[in-house]
Design a protein that fits this description.
Length: 290
């Protein structure tokens, strides 16, 4: 690495070698960002890098890292700080599905690996890069949520637990960084036709449940949620238009987030689009509350 990125906006994306991560890399490149792409496969990262159209003033680097290893994450952080002059956007996209089926039948070492990659790795990167973002005037952190974050998801306990934890973590650090000009939000991308979906289908209805299998098969046949919509939301959350929007879990599919900037006072003072306990009073169950 004998050179440094030069343009004034830089985005780091984990899990950038395929699926949504690759799509977001291409989208941020089209928007004029420098890119720092992170994944386990150097061959895939090189292929993406070489396929992006050359643009004056923009540069791209890729760094290989297994986010399942905390030691390698520490090394990654050092490499990023030594190479990239500033970081404006951090997209924590990397995730694994992990063991599928009832908890008591799961390989617990694989269960723990999901927590490491899907939750603890984003935490480590946020912890390392937030002080850096503060020094350079702020930025945007986008954490990709997933199925099970906002409701129970039987037979996917590791993935659902990690994603629910990631959302609450995001809400918490959004409060800690609000005065520093750093926005922290989660995107719920919706079910997409990706390699992860293929893993689910391979397990069959007996392992994942009839409802989950039917939903996965429908996405496989019809294409599922639009990556373009997720890309639009990620760019929105990274730009000036979303200033003041932080600590939210936003559905790329269902939420009318384009109009949120017109309602910032209401949005910032509300617990809408967050994880919260539902009381009996909320559901008009008069017997449930004092």
């Amino acid at each position: 690495m004998g050179w440094r990125l030069k343009a004034d906006r830089t985005c780091l994306i984990t899990g950038a070698s395929r699926g949504l991560g690759e799509f977001l890399a291409r989208r941020f490149w089209d928007e004029g960002y420098n890119l720092c792409l992170v994944a386990r496969s150097e061959a895939h990262l090189e292929k993406i890098e070489h396929s992006l159209p050359l643009k004056k003033g923009q540069q791209i680097i890729h760094l290989v890292c297994d986010l399942g290893d905390p030691v390698l994450i520490d090394e990654l952080i050092i490499k990023v700080r030594a190479t990239v002059p500033r970081l404006d956007v951090l997209v924590n996209n990397a995730a694994i599905q992990g063991p599928i089926g009832p908890l008591w039948e799961n390989d617990f070492s694989l269960w723990q690996k999901v927590i490491q990659i899907d939750l603890l790795a984003p935490v480590a990167l946020c912890r390392a890069f937030i002080p850096w973002m503060k020094q350079t005037g702020g930025g945007s952190i986008i954490n990709i949520s997933g199925g099970g974050a906002a409701g129970p998801r039987a037979n996917f306990s590791a993935y659902a637990t990690a994603k629910a934890g990631l959302v609450r973590f995001s809400e918490t650090i959004a409060e800690e960084t609000r005065s520093a000009g750093i926005r922290v939000n989660c995107i719920a991308p919706g079910a997409m036709k990706t390699a992860m979906l293929g893993e689910v289908l391979k397990k069959g209805a007996e392992s994942i449940g009839e409802r989950e299998f039917a939903l996965a098969n429908k996405v496989f046949m019809e294409g599922g949620a639009s990556m373009s919509r997720v890309g639009d939301l990620a760019i929105f959350l990274s730009g000036q238009a979303s200033q003041g929007i932080t600590g939210k879990l936003i559905s790329a599919v269902w939420d009318d987030w384009e109009h949120w900037p017109s309602h910032l006072d209401e949005l910032s003072s509300s617990d809408a689009y967050t994880l919260r306990r539902i009381t009996g009073r909320d559901r008009r169950l008069s017997w449930g509350d004092k």
